[in-house]
Amino acid sequence: MPNIKPIHTDADYENALELMGELWDAEEGTEAHDQLELLGILVDKYEEQRFPIAAPDPVAAVLFYMEQNGIERAELGRVLGSRSRASEFINRKAGLSLRQIRILHANWNIPADILIQPVEQTG
Fold it and tell me: Is 71 helix (H, G, I), strand (E, B) or coil?
């Protein structure tokens, strides 16, 4: 069985991915499957550190949700309290208030940690 070790470099990472490919079809309950699981944990940890993913922009998240669910901008206006408030948000003129974050989270189930991110404001 291969020697599994921490992943510190891109070369270690590539080797771990290759070994995972070799172990991919290992049957559950076998030593090979245990090694595959350990490698998965190590690769995941390395990827989180090496290739961090920033939280999505709140405007982009809301627009994506609306597009995926067929929601018109007028509905966003109703949720946020007014069409002008929704327009300010969508056009990056203003961020969301805590009350609006709570409403969007409760009604549309958009994670609050995304909605609370600062909006890159224009003008």
Answer: coil
